[in-house]
Amino acid sequence: MFNELSRIVSRPEPYEFYTAADLWTDEYTSQQMLACHLDDSTDLSSRRFSFIDQSVDWIIRYFDLQPGDSVADFGCGPGHYTSRLARKNMNVTGIDFSQRSIDYARKAAEKEGLTTRYITQNYLEYQSSDYYNLIMMIYCDFCALSPEQRSIMLKKFSHHLKTGGHVLLDAYTLNAYHNREESSRFERNLLYGFWSPNEYFGFLNVFKYDQEKVILDKYTIIEADRTRTIYNWLQYFSIPEIKKEFSDNGLEIECVLNDVAGTPFSDDSFEMAVIAVQK
């Protein structure tokens, strides 16, 4: 028991383990994630629909998107952004790892007669001959990737941009990092049964890595017949750091905002939205 508890509270090296697929491919947790995406009363997995409406209106205006322009949404989930852009007659591609989310998005598009193209794939492995006027990665998905994975994505974005095209994504700031604290928590059926339909015991250990500005939420879920650990990594950025990372991978940030609805940036913000072009 001592050794097992020691393993549960152990601190791994940054990005030593990566288990993002468990959230999206597990039958039960993918169902839970989709329910969170569709819950308009919370910002837990997607922002509220009123904000998304405001965001899409701003995106169309800011980037002067016209009917027929091509847009790619990496990490599209159940299609909150893709469906709204498709209604404005954009040629939209949504890429997501979750088959359940993609199935929902496809059915919703078919019901409305939208021609959105959806791809079930880990976006790190996305390959295509298509080029886009706008590439989006929204709701801080970028922060969940390791430095190596972020480099892959940025190079991919640069490659798939049309001449004059843009990248839009959001990320957590250092203000958000400093607002978090290390902690340990143990509960029966942690997060109200989110992790399993069966009875379980859940441990959550939050670790901060001050040098890297990374936070790990490490969940250990113990059921009668299995034990599993989920590692949720989040990177936090200063503006100079994220500008350098983009520049090192072929993109230049031309604008920093508070959010993907065009709010001007403020120094006390917990998030930032960046707009980038090819160098």
Automatic annotation (TrEMBL):
Q: Which UniProt keywords apply?
A: Methyltransferase, Transferase
Protein's pathway: Lipid metabolism; Phospholipid metabolism
One GO MF term = phosphoethanolamine N-methyltransferase activity
* Stretch forming the signal peptide: none
Gene3D superfamilies named in the record: S-adenosyl-L-methionine-dependent methyltransferases, Vaccinia Virus protein VP39
Q: Name one GO biological process term.
A: methylation
List the Pfam families: Methyltransf_25
Superkingdom of the organism of origin: Bacteria
What InterPro entries is this protein classified in?
Methyltransf_25, SAM-dependent_MTases_sf
Stretches assigned to the Methyltransferase domain: 71-165
Q: Which reaction does it catalyse?
A: phosphoethanolamine + S-adenosyl-L-methionine = N-methylethanolamine phosphate + S-adenosyl-L-homocysteine + H(+)
Q: This chain belongs to which protein, by name?
A: SAM-dependent methyltransferase
